[in-house]
């Protein structure tokens, strides 16, 4: 499965070498902040281990507490180091821009809300409807299709509508999709209804990402856009990782011990109606949590300040 991605990586490399042009450096090369990279890696590893093991071992387990402690300690040291570093991995001065800060917060929560849906419903179609992995993957394609269709349209709309309105509308559409999934999961509904919910999430995500990324990148000076985009990508990916860990933890917390591994049992496992109700109860709690994180994304998106048109124009031109 992993080798199947190699051709796409080669195509991306060739495409990048062709279209990207070398620009004269505005400043001398800076050293890579290796210490900062190591510290943030250790901090996030501790957090992910703690969240992943909490539901399985109990939140009072030494391994879980140790993971949270590592995260807290190394995050504090990392922030202190970045504040004093001449060439920081994370330029904290970028967060002086309220637009940049709110846009990245919205990115994190939106990524968190979408990823868990794709994961949990792929597993859902395997253990509940006995689909194989391929068919289960095909059934969650409406999320991707929605993003692919709306993203270029969203790019054109950024020239005609306020970015804050477009991004916030996208989150609202995603919330509508989550509400629909909350209503239909575990019920006797056709696949088409569930597909509509996933399609709404995909459309909402595509409508949010394009204008939000545009505004985040245009809110920082040109020479800082590489660092800014790296931070945006890190928060986007962090939202995906934490969404995976927390969603599985929440579902597992609602299950008795003998059902802990039912999500990974695949199409051949048969569970009773009572056990199925336990699993669906956990799914509904996850979807409620995702609606909550989407509301946080909506708040961050809507309450960001509007940039001045002159600055937007100069940023677009550059």
From TrEMBL:
Topology term for the membrane: Multi-pass membrane protein
Every Major facilitator superfamily (MFS) profile domain range: 99-318
GO cellular component, one term: plasma membrane
UniProt cross-references to InterPro entries, sorted A to Z: MFS, MFS_dom, MFS_trans_sf
Entry keyword set: Membrane, Transmembrane, Transmembrane helix, Transport
Domain of life: Bacteria
Any one GO molecular-function label of the UniProt entry: transmembrane transporter activity
UniProt subcellular location: Cell membrane
Transmembrane feature ranges: 6-22, 34-52, 64-81, 102-125, 137-158, 165-185, 191-209, 235-259, 282-303
Protein name, entry field: MFS transporter
Annotated source species: Paenibacillus peoriae
